[in-house]
TrEMBL record:
Name of this chain's protein: Glutaminase
Reaction(s) catalysed (UniProt annotation): L-glutamine + H2O = L-glutamate + NH4(+)
Entry keyword set: Acetylation, Hydrolase
Catalytic activity, EC: 3.5.1.2
Organism classification: Bacteria, Bacillati, Bacillota, Bacilli, Bacillales
GO BP: glutamate biosynthetic process; L-glutamine catabolic process
Name of the coding gene: glsA
Length: 322
């Protein structure tokens, strides 16, 4: 296996150098001013296998803010705190086919519930359902879950939080709309403060790979079989990642890559390859979590080189769940 690992490591390094040139086709997010400072040439990947294999290449040590990937964490935590039934009564599980921050489709749906927890409307509604009266109280169970998964407590990047807070007109509009239609269960300002803070949690690709690994293993830590996320909640999170995780490019991602995934505008992607039943020869037949970081984005807000890299890896290692 050690030899196997060295050999696979060389492949992953080659793939990073090949796909790095695609970063030129994208642009870093600029609607949150501080995100515009990211280096568009960066591309990094971490792959953590349930078999203990670890592959890392490219810029793996650059911290970045979790952004929309936090929607997976807040939804999981809300399900754990409030119950799955409670959450699914209040937020739907259907892809929108619209941009992540779309407000139009909300209006058209009038009083029906937000489409899904991974677009801003649904995510802000979910955050309002977290228990607690202050943003710190609401964030606490998210930090506790991250601490259990990662083995350390990540921090909020205060500069990104402030930048996001001060450039948040669209999210405020969504918040007011949720308030009007009865889908906001906490004070609007507290909810938005919580949402901007959760988006500003700083992580690395290793952290994304580790979260992905736990999800691939249905919520259990493969090292010691401890349950970190209830199996039912992990399953729902993965179904939502597959159908809604890449915004309005989710269908293409499912078709060409074929694994549950979630992206964020800072250029992170978390991809989850669950265990496979066939072909013992494949390196990750027992499942793996993959973290990618590539801040140059395509027009949907997904890492442009990151998606291509994942597509290539998924086809090389037959990761598609289909
Ligand atoms: N904080 C960002 C926002 O709400 C997250 C969006 C994203 O990553 N797509 O605008």
């Amino acid at each position: 296996t050690k030899q196997n690992q060295e050999w696979l490591q060389e492949y992953v390094e080659d793939w990073i150098s090949f796909y790095r040139k695609h970063t030129k086709e994208g642009k870093v997010a600029s609607y949150i001013p501080l995100l515009a400072e990211a280096n568009p040439d960066h591309l990094g990947i971490s792959i953590f296998g349930a078999n203990g294999m670890t592959l890392r290449a490219g810029e793996v040590d650059i911290p970045f803010t979790i952004q929309s990937i936090s929607k997976v964490i807040s939804f999981i935590v809300a399900c754990m705190e409030r119950g799955v039934g409670y959450m699914l009564d209040r937020v739907d599980v259907e892809p929108t086919g619209e941009a992540f921050n779309s407000i139009m489709h909300l209006e058209m749906r009038k009083v029906e519930k937000p489409f899904n927890p991974f677009v801003n409307a649904g995510a802000i509604s979910v955050t309002s359902m977290l228990p607690g009266r202050t943003s710190d109280e609401k964030l606490e169970p998210m930090f506790q879950l991250l601490d259990r998964i990662l083995g350390y407590r990540p921090q909020i990047n205060v500069d990104v939080y402030e930048s996001e807070r001060d450039s948040s007109m669209r999210n405020r509009a969504i918040g007011y709309y949720l308030l009007e239609t009865g889908f906001l269960e906490s004070d609007l300002n507290i909810t938005l403060e919580t949402y901007f803070k959760q988006c500003s949690i700083e992580i690395t690709v290793d952290d994304l790979a580790q979260i992905g690994l736990i999800l691939a293993n249905d919520g259990e830590d493969p090292k010691n079989q401890q349950e970190i996320i209830p199996r039912q909640v992990a399953r729902i999170a993965k179904a939502l990642m597959l159908t809604c995780g890449m915004y309005d490019a989710s269908g293409k991602f499912a078709t060409y890559v074929g694994v549950p995934a979630k992206s964020g505008v800072s250029g992170g992607i978390i991809a989850v390859a669950p265990p496979r039943v066939r072909d013992e020869e494949l390196p990750f037949v027992d499942g793996c979590g993959i973290g990618v970081f590539g801040p140059a984005l395509d027009d949907k807000g997904n890492s442009i080189a990151g998606i291509r890299l994942l597509r290539h890896i998924a086809s090389q290692w037959d990761l598609s769940i289909f």
